[in-house]
Amino acid sequence: MLTSQQEQLIEATAPVVAEHLDAITQRFYPLMFKRYPDVASLFNEAHQQSGAQQRALAGAVLAYVQLRQDPARARGVLATVVEKHVSLGIQPDQYPIVGECLMAAIGEELGDALTPEIAEAWAALYEELAGLLIELEDRRYQAFALKPGGWRGLRRFRIAATRQESAMIRSFVLEPEDEGPVADHEPGQYIGVRLGIEGETLYRHYSLSDLPNGRTYRISIKREPEGRASRYFHDVLNVGDSVDLLPPAGELTLQGGNEPLLLISGGVGQTPILPLARQALAEGRQVVYLHAAIDAEHHAFRQEVAAMREVHPSKLKVVAIHEYGDDADHCGRLDRELLRHYLPASNPRCYFVGPQGFMSAVNQALAELGVEEDRRHFEHFGPSRPIEAA
Q: 137 catalytic, yes or no?
């Protein structure tokens, strides 16, 4: 627990640390990977290069500094961090590594301005934050392990089947090697995967693209030209091969109620949206399912969505938007006028997932159309960041 003097030091120095926080996080990751190279496998190199990981860390630290006097709100803000950590299997003994390297990065950036007293105060703040995250993550681990078919840590799954969904997206059905039951997940969640590629360990998380069934999970992965993990799935792994899975996680889950839904996806962003649609339709809700793709060749799950429409003709409206070609309801890009046209009239909830620029545009358009912030739901692939970030 911080002393009153440390509280005062944090309050006095927070603006300075905030001003330098981007630079601190830029120093932090290379320093940590140099001192502890084994932890590098937990981080996606592409997110490091883009700066997304650094921005996510900076945002979490700032949010906690601002909200720590309100524990309920602080826990809410940290919920996304907890979910990402659960999908990576983060453990308590990894937090001291982060604390050591974060304080070293602060010292390198601030130099003599970081007095021993200030350093001790910020170290105590980190210990407080780490303790809270460890507590919240342990609750999640325990809750999932107690579910029928649940587990803690890693569990080995084999690829039972694959299916090419579009030119770039392939689905993988995963069944446990121990042949036991598989715990249910919430539609919209993702799952952590550990891979061994050429002697190197990589961790990734992929959206679960189907409803829970107690026997298998399905993930659907876009082949990225520079993506080591996605290329490994597409080009190397076959039926019968195995991967390690961590517990499902994620906050993009369906809010209770009976209001209509506008579900919007771009590209591979359809993977969490599809099970949300299935769940909503099973609950008898009205759904507008709007998907944007480059063209017909890149439009995944088209037959699967058409089959849903046959089962729920009065509840489901499907709209396809392609940038090119004439095999869709609209040709061009999704814009505010199209959203206005298909937005349900009676106070809908809107869920949207896709590339960052796509989500930013959708979020802004929905706000301009009068959809309140608490009725706009989205989730990033990779580190969380402000929706406005390009």
A: yes
Q: Per-residue confidence of the chain (390 residues) as pLDDT tens digits?
A: 789 999 899 989 988 888 888 888 889 888 998 999 888 887 766 555 555 566 667 777 777 887 777 877 777 778 888 998 998 899 999 999 989 998 999 999 999 999 999 999 999 999 998 998 999 999 999 999 999 999 999 999 999 999 999 999 999 999 999 999 999 999 999 999 999 999 899 999 999 999 999 999 999 999 999 899 999 999 999 999 999 999 999 999 999 899 999 999 999 999 999 999 999 999 999 999 999 999 999 999 999 999 999 999 999 999 999 999 999 999 999 999 999 999 998 889 999 999 989 999 999 999 999 999 999 999 876 544 444 543
- What's the pTM? 0.89
Which pairing describes strands 376-378 and 349-353: parallel, antiparallel, or unpaired? parallel
Same domain, 21 and 111: yes
Q: Which of 29, 109, 126, 137 is catalytic?
A: 137
| Pair (32, 131) in one structural domain | yes
- Assigned domain for 256 exists: no
Are 190 and 320 contained in the same domain?
A: no
Catalytic residue among 7, 95, 175, 186: 95
Q: Could you give the CA distance from residue 156 to residue 42 in angstroms, rounded to a whole number? A: 18
Can you tell me the distance from the alpha carbon of 266 to that of 294, in angstroms, rounded to the nearest whole number? Answer: 9
- Residue 217 belongs to what domain range? 155-249
Q: Could you confirm whether 64 is annotated as catalytic? A: no
Q: How far apart are CA 240 and CA 174, in angstroms?
A: 10
Taking the CA atoms of 312, 314, 315 and 316 in sequence, report the sign of the dihedral they define.
Answer: positive
DSSP per residue over 347-374, as a string?
A: --EEEEESSHHHHHHHHHHHHHTT--GG
